[in-house]
Structures are given as structure tokens and as C-alpha cells.
Write a structure and sequence with these properties.
With about 90 residues, this protein is mainly alpha-helical. The protein has helices spanning about 5-20, 30-45, 50-75.
């Protein structure tokens, strides 16, 4: 399924709100991960801004918990990279 222009507008608003709430730039690695999730939701047919926000919060929480789990498995040390993992 393709993403429509109106969905892009909603996604950008949700991403801007997410970044403002978490005091980060849209260029931040976490914001880029969030944008990837939003794109995924849009291709799945998501259309509602509120649902985008809810799904993004859930996905990011799961993503961060997963990253913490992996970090603990590596003794709390994970190599930092400039590339964002696929959401």
C-alpha cells in the first residue's frame, strides 16, 4: 500500500509532536527510528493522528525495552553507530 500526501502531513505533525515532547531534533537517531515506525503504520493503512500517536508510543517503548535487553546481554555496553536500525 502506498502512502498518501495527507498521511505524510499527519505523520510529520505526529513526529514533530513526539520530538517536542521528548526535547529532541527530528534529526536525532531516535526521531529517525520513530519516523520509520510512522512510515510502517502508514503503509499498513493507518489514517488517524491519534492512532498514529498511540501506536508510535507503544512501538517506541517496545523498541527501547528491546535495546535495553540487548545492552544488558552485552554487559551494558553497546557500540554506537550513526546508522539507525530498521524499526
Amino acid at each position: 500500500m502506498s502512502v498518501e500526501l495527507w498521511q505524510v502531513t499527519i505523520m510529520r505533525k505526529v513526529l514533530n509532536d513526539f520530538c517536542a515532547h521528548h526535547d529532541m531534533s527530528v534529526r536525532d537517531r531516535t526521531a529517525i527510528t520513530a519516523a520509520g515506525f510512522l512510515m510502517k503504520f502508514a503503509t499498513e493503512g493507518e489514517a488517524d493522528a491519534g492512532e498514529f500517536r498511540t501506536r508510535l508510543d507503544e512501538a517506541m517503548l517496545e523498541h527501547l525495552l528491546e535495546r535495553n535487553s540487548v545492552a544488558k546481554q552485552h554487559g551494558g555496553h553497546m557500540a554506537r553507530t550513526d546508522k539507525c536500525a530498521n524499526p
